[in-house]
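Quick start: what a row looks like.
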Amino acid sequence: MFSLRNIVKLKYLFISVIALAFVLSTLISVYSNYKGNMKLMQEQTLENNRVYALKLAETVDKFIVNSTNTMRYSAAEIAYDFENINKLQEVANRLYLQGDTFSSVLIIDAEGNIIVNAPQSLGEAGKKALSTNGMENYDKHEPFISDPYISPTGRKMIVISMPIYDEQGTFKGFVSGSIYLYDSNIFESILGEHPYENGSYLYVVDNKGKIIYHPNKASLGADASKSEVVVQLLKEKRGALEAVNAFDQPMLAGYSQSEKTRWGIIVQTPYDEALSMVGQQVVSVFKIGLPFILFSTIVVFLLASHIVRPLEKIAEITENSVKDQEMKKLKGIRAWYYEVYKIQEALIHSFSVLHGKVNTLKEETSTDSLTKLLNRHTFENKVKLLTEKKKDYTLVMLDIDWFKSINDNYGHIAGDEVLQVLASKLKESLLEDDLACRYGGEEFILVFTETTIEDAYERVELLRSNVQQIISPEGEPLTFSAGMANYPLHGDELMAIIAKADEALYKAKDNGRNRVEVTNA
């Protein structure tokens, strides 16, 4: 028999071992979760920046195409009345005033003389058009977009020019519109604002790597061609990578090149800012779990005072629980008397709480916080797994119609409520193996597994009809437009399927919205 003094000392030793097991289990779980979430957050930030850069590049291209079409229409309009100075001035004024697109407009004859200009205060009429007017490609008699250059007035600008031909095909001259890159115009609207508030910023380089737009004006004109990000951009046109900026600050950068202008748009986020949230989440989980650890330790202490079995048996149980640290093995311990049963119960409870917190944290990093649908990264991983397993599925990309007006007129809280209501309807439409994801903003994606395009169409039409019964904050029915594509019918890779569905979505919007379109590719 042990003396009371020996029993008390051994009891405390036993409790210390159990407490150590709890602490080690917690630290290992938190650390492994921390490392996993660090990698996940890094990948998500890189992907978000890549997609944002791509969207901006596409927006710039669309703007250039629209501006070129406008210029082409004006060139055709004046080709048959080129001698009418009043008509030329009227067209130049209209191009200058409409849409806040062009900072100035010139109409130039076949000999390179400037006939009219807008605004008329520019004072270029009657002068010779030189390369300093962005007309270095004048002799080619073809439409062209100049590279960014500095005008004689010191402004950074580009020029969009369209040749003028009459009905006999005779070259009459050019209509030319200049865009000041840093004045208050459409380019400043496209490039000057972005939604991130975590230290992210974007800058733009020309096709030679020279900075033509940067939030820090002191960086304008700097040669960034040796930058790791710019080197990759000029080589690959689009992508993402971890790099160091000019101030030796680690950044997570996404980049994309505009097809029309060949500008490179780079969006980057400070590495520390992007990953700081992970550390905050881990600390929060640890704080929540700590009281449960202390509570479980107290329970074990009380139970240990009733242990009368030989110390060898207690040590064996303790050793197993410390070494295994797994729920399955812990449950496998044979608790054939009360004291051991209570210790086992306390351990299982403690580990269950910790594992529950870890699972909660994993769920938070795999779902969208607002709608509770899958986030983009988790969704893409799940669908890529379906693709790898060659399982058929139909992918539906949908977008709330006129959602921006809800945010603009009723605020983002009302907009968030609309997103949550739609997410609830999406969940109701899912079968057991289907997936729903908030892809970004007001865009959502559904994946119907083992479903033909015809059956999926009927399900989406039913969903659209149900959603239309909801009244938006504007007092109108809530509607969405959707595009559909099927694997493997329309592609053999996830991104190809998404692209096809996205094309069909834009077709649905072009055809009047509140409808479902299937890709015709």
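That is the whole record. The longest helix spans residues 4-78. Residues 4-45+291-365 form one domain.
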